[in-house]
Design brief:
The complex is a heterodimer of chains A (474) and B (498). Chain A is of the alpha+beta class. Chain A is 21% helix and 36% strand. Chain A has helices at 31-44, 101-116, 142-145, 149-165, 228-241, 259-271, 275-278, 346-353, 374-379, 432-435; strands spanning 50-66, 69-87, 90-96, 169-185, 190-206, 213-220, 252-257, 288-290, 293-294, 307-309, 331-335, 338-339, 365-367, 383-397, 402-415, 418-422, 426-430, 439-447, 455-470. Chain A starts with 30 loop residues before the first helix and ends with a strand. Chain B is of the alpha/beta class. Chain B is 56% helix and 7% strand. Chain B is built from 20 helices and eight strands. Chain B has a six-stranded mixed sheet. In chain B, strands 5-6 form a two-stranded antiparallel sheet. In chain B, α17 (350-363) links the parallel β2 and β3 (367-374). In chain B, α3 packs across α7 (118-127), α9 (148-163) packs antiparallel against α10 (176-189) and α14 runs parallel beside α20 (475-492). Chain B is globular and about 70 Å long. In chain B, 34% of the residues are buried. Classes of the chains: A alpha+beta (474), B alpha/beta (498).
Amino acid sequence: MTPPSRRTAGPPKRLSSRTSVPSITRRFLTQAECETIAQRAAELVKADSSLRLLVDTWWSAELRWARNRISLSSERRDNDLTIVRSLPGASAEVKTNQLDDASLEGASREAERELHGARVDPEDLMEPPPRFDYLKPAIWSEETFQLPMPDCAKAAIAAVAPAERAGMLSAGYIEVRAAAFAAIDTRFSRTLYAPYTTAQCSMTVRDPRGTGSGWAGLSSYDWGRIDCQSLAARALEKCLASRNPVAIEPGRYTVVLEPQAVHELVQHVIRALGRPAAELPSSADPFHLRGVDSKLGLKVIDERVTIGHDPMHPDLGVLPFTVEGEPTLPVTWIDRGVLTNLAYSRSYALQWLHENSPATLRMAYHMSGGASTVDDLVRSTRRGLLVTRFSNVRLIDDAALLLTGVTRDGLWLIEDGKVSKAVKNLRFVESPLFVLNAIDELGMPERVFSPGAPAIVPSLKARDFSFTTIIDAV
Amino acid sequence: MVMTTACVGELRDGRAATRRRCRGRTALAVLLIASMARAASAQTLFPSPAGAPAFGRYDLEMCMGAVTRIRNSAQWNTRYDTLTAAELLLMADPPAVAQVARQCVGNRAVLQLPPGQRLTRLQVLLAAQADSVFRTELNSWATSMASSIARAKLLISVLQNAVLDRSAASAHPARLGLAEALTQQLDSIGSAALYYRTIAYNDLLLAADQVGDTATYRRVLARAMPTYRAYLAVDSVQQNAAGQLFFAVMQVWTPRWRELMDSLRARGPAHYLTVLSRMQGELASAAHMSASDSVAWVQGARRWVGQSAPALTADYWVGRTDSTATLPQRGKITLVAFVDDRCRGSCDPYPFYAMLRRLKRRYGGALEIVLVANTWGFFRLRPPLEPEAEANVLGWYFLNYLRIPAILAVDETPFVTRAAPDRRRFYQHSTVREAYSDTDPKHQNQWSPSGLNMTTLVAPDGHILYHELLGGNSPEQDLDRLIAAVVDYQRQHPGHLS
């Protein structure tokens, strides 16, 4: 992890003057600058109560195109400061993006006034947080940080070219971001600072007559790991193959879900992995069993599936600490189908487990798979549907984790081990837990498009996936 | 700004005289705008009152904020006792509120409050002791109401939130006379406001009882009873047990409270317990529902009263100089309070702790306070603790940080641990907590055992005089009266209860 140094000359300028507005010439604030701002804010507030500063400082370059033409090219930067003032048992926060003394003092005063009406929260007590050992995950890419804007434009032009040559319309989005998150507690002299980069590229290629659509996308912390041209080729290929779809009867089908489609279902399982909710009596949580018991230790999905997260995995890096300063640690949520862990806070860990470490829930995850490719999965299917991805997925029942949504950007009928024809999009009503219990075969895990929360997910073939309605939209 | 625009028009005319005059007026306008901008900037930055002009928006905001805080002082009074001086700087003390309120009224700034803040305006007037302005303002507001029901709602709202606001009592005393006048105003509305009249009488009677104004209590009760009866006679009113019990308490219990205390003061705990038992019977009879849940609850909660207090044992004692004597100690009044530092209950009972401090301050060596706490393996968000370390932390927390002048008994809480992957600890009741709890064990929740702030007052002869399961703010008055009576009895009959 290299600290940001672009366009810098010498040490950061001291910002402690009461009237000066810091002149930020870098893409985002350094740790020293964040600490100086916190120090200034602490000097400006009168009372000796706690002051915490959360700084989300970022630079972002984005490029958008539609109908084969670039429609937006921007470079933005901002500093989002959250000033938190606390009394024992209560805290209040105010956000600002102004770094001058008057704004810092105004925001601090505003937080104090908010504090007067704050409810007592027993977890918000001014106990010194313990010192944790934080991991150092791979979340910083110098190449991404140094990426010149023209390179983004070149990538976009290269992505548009094949679609244009084929007479199709391409639309897409590229974003590269370099940022840092800092959590500074002046009372306990604790500074946590982590710089990180993110990059994403996604595009849709559509038939000008509106009869076919293909999509491809990928995200990573490292721009070098995203091959825009192969994404463009894939989106175009899907678009061409999905033209002139035919209607089929909705019902239960065997489905071959591409990794992106699996991710759009499984991320709802990840979101539901909270332990306190699962142990609440009469809880409508999918992992609630009965009384105060969760389904921990019980088999909840197919035994071929393991779901977990290791922040040190080169493709699954996330910030090493939470807003509260708690560490992100490796965790296995579901081990060979058995629910082995549910997320909980440090407060829960202390109260119930006599431990000091939380099981922090990050949306990043890894799902195990097999050795088959999507083509292998198709070949072994007598009749079924091949799904590129889902869209507008919504939760309709908590207890069963029942979801609804529509297929999008490519749905094909599989007959006798071959993709036979494109079919019109379908609405589904299904639970990912049901899907993960009806797996026929698992494909190879691969990175998917999931900005901010990296995921590695396999394709899979599942039985009896429930489609309810034909959707005419392409 | 208008002046500047006009000058621009005149300057366009090119007349020299006007130009000269306008230069002067423009400069004046610029100065005016600059001073307004400075004032606006000052308002944004919220300078301290010392540096601000004689009166400003800051003061008014501070006043409004303070009044709001007093209204919500269930939250804020909780903190007054435990905050450091530096933290107190963040908020106005109640006396400062009265001062600022007077300033607001004196500068007529209170009239700047927006129409939606009319109730706040009345609260500010009360805090400033401007009762006559308050009456005028209220009458003007009441007459603007469209219907008699709306007027009744307004009056009851003002009565509850301003005139008899218990939490505001620290800033201004409850106005019983004013409240009585408001109830008369409500009476004049007639049967349309019957429901609101009963509420008004309830509040006024409770306030009168609380401040010990017997004359007002008796006078208002005589006026209230026909209203209660009329209300209960209305077909649509459900004849619920709780309502009947409440009216029975008003008739039987509260007027005779002093008589009960006199018996304790003059004839000692044994006689007091006899009279108390008789009164409980009368209460049940007056409520005509001896079998109802409510009366059963009243009797159940007082089941322990009159029994011998179980001996207190503990794994760790903190703040105890004499480790051999059995507690509760004979010859001393002992207040046994079960406390807990966990969950929301750890913040809510700050007033309860303040009550303990006040009682100890009043009765000194005559009263022994024993806090009973349990170990839970953690303290707030600190890393896990072993029982002995936790007992020390609890001792620091209750005796030093919360400054409760008491002895702390800490019991190790027995627990069972579930096998992996669950791994949770499930706590059970400790011996002392079990001994002092009158709740059926099968109804007790493992995580939140009943008895948080459970308070038991033990007479010097070892008999339980008072047992309150719910805790909170309410028992102070009862405890104060009981302890005062026992102390008087002990003074008149030295050595009699040892």
